[in-house]
């Protein structure tokens, strides 16, 4: 059983969007995935997202996605919410992935805005509604126009929130004004999907984070969140400011690349990347080490 959560935190509060470990020859490393998932939950995550963009979902097969969900559930499914990324820019394929994730035992679904084909808002509404109709699982929307090319407009979010299984949004839009209105009008559980904006989004009504930097600073993210919830905004701000070099360093280039480099330096499961992603250069790795050290993380 996943941990009990209130309707306001349907997937927990601190979630890491987990990388997918591969073996040296590029195959799926299920043992490594279980060890990494256990490490992240031990560090303080009460949820994990698997098969998201940070999990290199564009380059893993449907069969690998199912194997990964089952492996992570076996490792931590009684201690954390396991949310399966199922989003593509093909509604039919997305529904297949959603049903597979439900069969595999996932606790919820993360559905990214369809990318590249740039559907209108009515297309987004029908796409996300079809996902919510396809299974009995709760759905977290994922609004990231910088990658998808299309934002989910506030009016569309409000319409989608009427569906009983659309319960949350992962916000990587980078617009606090729009977030404020959407949170107020939709009633959805709101998760920061942009680590630099974790604290600002809390201030306008977010309930937690879906983080990349959680791979290396989960205890600090939880300390920030708990301080804010306890009313100690000064302490939360201090934690946020200490983490600024980490936020900067982990996103100097694509986040999967830096995350796998940091994990490898810490002796944690990561493995190589699948093309078109490539490893950091020696110079970039040295810069990452400097950035993380400035935020209190040694690699």
What does this structure look like?
With 299 residues, this protein is an alpha/beta fold. It contains twelve helices and eight strands. An eight-stranded parallel β-barrel has the order 1-2-3-4-5-6-7-8, surrounded by five helices. Helix 3 links the parallel strand 3 and strand 4. The model is unreliable at 1-6 (pLDDT under 50).
Jot down its keywords.
299 residues; alpha/beta; 8-stranded parallel barrel; 8 strands; disordered N terminus
Count of DSSP E strands?
Answer: 8
Radius of gyration: 18 Å
**Residue share in β-strands:** 5-15%
Instruction: Decide which structural class fits the backbone.
Output: alpha/beta
Strand order of the largest sheet: 1-2-3-4-5-6-7-8
Sheet bearing the most strands, described? 8 strands, parallel, barrel
Name the average pLDDT.
96
Low-confidence stretches: 1-6
Brief digest:
The chain is α/β, with parallel strands linked by helices.
Secondary-structure map with pairings?
Elements: E1 14-17, H1 30-43, E2 47-50, H2 62-76, E3 81-85, H3 91-104, E4 108-112, H4 121-134, E5 139-143, H5 145-148, H6 154-160, E6 166-171, H7 176-186, E7 189-192, H8 198-203, E8 208-211, H9 214-229, H10 233-250, H11 255-265, H12 282-294
Parallel strand pairs: 1-2, 1-8, 2-3, 3-4, 4-5, 5-6, 6-7, 7-8
Helix pairs in contact: 1-2, 2-3, 3-4, 4-6, 6-7, 9-10, 10-12
